[in-house]
Amino acid sequence: MTDGEIALARLEERMKNHREEMKLLTINQNELFKITRNINRSMMRIQYIAYGMAGLFVLEQFGIKELIKAMFA
After folding, report:
1. How far apart are CA 52 and CA 71, in angstroms?
2. pLDDT tens figures, 13-59
3. Which domain holds residue 17?
4. What is the pTM assigned to this prediction?
């Protein structure tokens, strides 16, 4: 093999490895996107639960009758 052929073979091997790495990176990006989306959904659920608990706390502290009186006063 000439030097040019050896260099070309090395370049082809590096390109093949690069394509494999890009495939893996794409798979990892897709997995990260799925994980991030699930975390965001979980955070929204936790936020709704916290709002509900805060509402229940307010009702418990002030009582429903007082709250209704305050709303329509």
Report:
1. 19
2. 999 988 888 888 888 888 989 999 999 999 999 999 999 888 888 88
3. 3-72
4. 0.48
